[in-house]
Structure formats: structure tokens, C-alpha cells
């Protein structure tokens, strides 16, 4: 049957060459398989009258018989919405109208039987139906009604050229007739039985031609589970293959460097999260497999000290270590922080960036190759062919999403070489890799995109760190904010003011940086106050000069664009003011807030906006004032923006799901990962007879390179 599904769509009854061209160009349907995987985005159900207590949380539309018992108007930011209480003999629900309220109130008769039809929402424990179709029951009973019908994704061009939803339904019927409604099973009997899943054939039929809502919900669950199961299977399998085939250099001992630092020079007590992560890293480094671990930790959670202690394990075993950061500013910050720690142990450490001089580079290259240089910090400059290590054992990549796959693989080739037994060839042993990010990745997304990496999370802040107080203020409160700034400066504190724009835009009603800078100068005149300004259009040398003035405390206020999002560590800066905060994304707001709160004093983040705010902007601002948990913020960001925007183009193929949704179906995703892990832990090669179904399906998926085959 699988070979039948690879037949070109042209051959299906009811298609023909013209429709086939439209299906290919507009909907990406090339084969029978593509058509069967074009899942409906909603359903018209006119077959059944539901009771309110029977309603389920799925994507179907339903019709219900009942009475409206009353209306009430609810004020909103813009206008009002009309809410009606609708009930039958089993319960009650809400009907909602955002427009046309006057006509509704004048024409709908309370306490009279009606049939309503529409899509049901579930919110705060109550079902509601926005803008329902409604009809008096006595009129409705005289009309004829069609059956439950799938509504397929479409485009304006395909509809205009005659490929209507009715045509799509007919084509789909022909496909099921031609295949005799029989499709190859892709899940083992053990999973189908344990989870009480529909068969593959029943699931496909009931998602395209559902007999009722219950069968539709079961069909959707089965197909979502299967899609996510095979994604997780491939990710976990990739991890297992990586560990079995890619050998790393085993760090057999924890020695003098690590123990001396831990016992005599550790600047503060490690948190239990840091200790747990170090144990996970130590376990990886001690095995024969190459470490491939993602370290997530919120701003200020102490990832750098974990990275340094991991480097000490490499040094204790006679290996070198490097740390690569995406910008020169961030590299310098890492270098300054790690130098302080390394100097106490007489460890040689250097920095290599694009601005390093020729003589500096020559010294670094030489000491790196002879092994005198133990730790190298840098930017992309580390990837240059001239940069050769004597024996690189550990490579740490900070904010790895800024680096491409090809760039990261260059680091692999810089590991130590060994002579293969009985041969003259040499074999490069890749260094252990620790990838760090301060951008919290929601758990569901991490499982889908980084499921092949081992993941460590530092989920607590060091003791003594005070939570940053975050408030939202409108422009009308500006005078109070200025007064607060003066009070903080009087206490000896420093302040960031961040703007989203560099120059005035005719189309946007936002204060720009230069206008803001001038108004700040008027409010905080020299010589009493000194102000720095930094933006992306400045020369690097001027930018660095202004930043250093602020770092040294020579200026009290730093007016800047988001160039200060990463790379500036000023413990004395205790106030972050973000202008036009509604223009920033959640992760950006969270990163900016992380620039303060690095000292012992109470820090503040003030989000300034106009009164004109979209619903999404309100959610972002409320989230920022409510929580400082980066993972909670990341989950909200995922709901608002979707996985594609968050992960960027590099991962675009990963989440091109046909029916599942990593946001809405997180429980199914976790369930699928659990079952994939359990099967592979007992049978990593899928050679047991009971797993033959999975192996066959896995081969088919890889063979036809569809959405699951994104693993390189």
C-alpha cells in the first residue's frame, strides 16, 4: 500500500492535469500520500444535536438546541461585547458577540427554543461560542441539513480556479475508494493496545470522514501521537548513535585544578542546580562517548562558573579548552570574568577576536600549538584554519543559536588526533561539546528541536540575589519616573534607558533614541550628571569608549538601543528603563531586564508605554510584571509567537508538522517521547519481532524524505 501512496496525484480519479498542477503549486500535494496527509482544519457538523454536557475540547463545530435566558454587556478597551447565557436541560454556556449587538438584542427572543451552530471555545472552565449561527427551532425543523463535513486548507487561487472544498471532499472520497480504506499500520500492537488507539486505517478515515465527535477526537489523538512519536524516535536514535559511534576523549580524573579551585577559590557556594549540572557534565566527560550537552540557564543563574569548572576537568586531564561567543563584546566579558578565576590557579588564558593584532595572533597560535596556552576565549576567529590546538578536549559554545551547523562542525576538527591501529592514517577525536544559552527554551520546543542533545538546566538563582522589581508605567507617569531616577542616582546607583529606534520614523509613533537623549540631558544637566550614549551606528571604538565610561562609573545614565542586550556587566547599575516596551518581544524584554540585578542592591525594571496597546502587548507586559522565571516567560512567548518565529530559519524544517502542534499537544508530545525512549532503551536497533512495524515505518519515512526525515 505504501508504494500505491507514492503515485502522482494526476492519476487519481477526479483530478486530471490542470487540477494536479494547482494542487502541486498551491497546496504542495504531489502524491496520494501528500493528499492523505492534508488534514482538515475544521468541520461542519449538521448531523447531531449536542447537549451542553456532551461538548468536547476539539476543533469541531457543533449545533445545540436550547434557550437564551438573558443578555449582559461587558465593557472592553474598545467598545463592548454582548454576552448571552444559553442553556439546555443539561447545562449552560456563553454566546458572545463583538459586533452587531443592537440587532441581536432586538431580534433574538429570550426563552424561545433556538438551534445554534458554531465553533466551541473552552476558557476558564466555561464553554463559549462566538458569533453563532442561530435559527428558531420550528424553522430549523422544516429545513434539510447536510452531514458532518471536513473543511480543508485552501488558497484564494485554488478556490477561484474551481478546487472548492466540495471538490476536495470528492477527491478525498475517491482516494479512500481506490485504496479500499486500508493503510499500512505504523505503530506496534503493544502501544495501540496500551493507549487504546484507533488503527491507522480507522484514524485516517475518521479524521477525513468523522462519524461523530468522539471518533474525531480519537482519530486526531492517534495521528498526532504517531507524528510526534517518529520525530522523537529519530532524535533519540540520533543521540544513541552519536554516543555509540562518536568516541570522545575520556577525562579519567578530577585533579588538582578542579579540587584546588573548589576548595580554596570558589567565590560563592554553588547552588544545588549548579552541583547537579556539574555531576551530569562530569558523567559525560568520564565516559568514552563525546559529550554533546545543552546547558540552559536564565540570566544570572551561574552558567559561567559551571563552564569554567568543566574547563578545569579538561586541564586536569592534560587537555586544552576553548569558549566561543557570538560577539566581541561578549567574548571580552567572558575573558575578563574567567581571567580573574584562572589567574588564581596560574592557568594561561588568552582572547582571540577579529580585532586581535598580528603579533598577538602569532603568539596565541604558537602557544596554542605547543600546549602552553590552556584556555582560549574568542569569537568566530577561533574557527580560522590557522588556529590549531595541541590537544583540544572541551569546546564550549555560548548562545549557540547564533552559529550555523557548518561553523560548529569546524570546532570538531580541532580536536586531538590519534594514529589508527595498524595504519598510518590519523583519526581526529572530536572535543567534548557544551552548548550554553541564556535564552530559556520551552520544554516542549527543547524536546522537539534539541531532542538529540542531552539537556541540563540551571533553574535557580544564586543565594543573595534579589528579584528585580518590574513595573509598567504609561507615558503620563514620566515625571514620577524621572523623580525616581534622581533618587536612585543620589544613592550612587546607575541607570540604563533603552530605546527601540535609532532615528525618527515617520510611520511610527515612538520616541526615538536621539530625541530621548536630548530630553534626558535637559532633565539631568551637566556637570552634576554625566550621560553615555550607545547605538548600533557608532564606530566600535566610540561604542567601547562610552561603555567603559559607564562601566567605570564615570557616567550615571546609559542611553542606548538594544546593543546592550548582551555583553555589559555593571553590578552598580540597578535601574533598567525600557522605552516603548510594547515594541519589544518577551525574550528581548527578559534579556534586557537581566542587565540589572547583578549587584547586592535592590534593582528595578520600568516598562514605559503609550496607552495604545494591542492584546499581545498587554499579555507581554503583564507577564513581565508577574514573573521573572525565564522558562515561564518562554512558554508565554511560544504561545504568542509560535515555534517558527522563536527558533528562526535554521530550524524551519523541524517543526513543519502536519497535524500535531507543539504548543497545544505538549501532553501528547511528552507521551510520545516516553514511549519512544522506552522502546529504544530495550531495543536500540529495533530488531525484536514486536518492533518490526516501527522499523518498517521508520525506513519508509527515511526513504521518502518527508517531514520526519530532517535528521542529517
From TrEMBL:
Its EC number(s): 5.6.2.4
SUPFAM superfamilies tied to this protein: Nucleic acid-binding proteins (SSF50249), P-loop containing nucleoside triphosphate hydrolases (SSF52540)
Residue span(s) of domain Helicase C-terminal: 477-644
GO molecular function, one term: DNA helicase activity
Domain Helicase ATP-binding: 284-458
Function, in words: Plays a critical role in recombination and DNA repair. Helps process Holliday junction intermediates to mature products by catalyzing branch migration. Has replication fork regression activity, unwinds stalled or blocked replication forks to make a HJ that can be resolved. Has a DNA unwinding activity characteristic of a DNA helicase with 3'-5' polarity.
Protein known as: ATP-dependent DNA helicase RecG
Gene behind this protein: recG
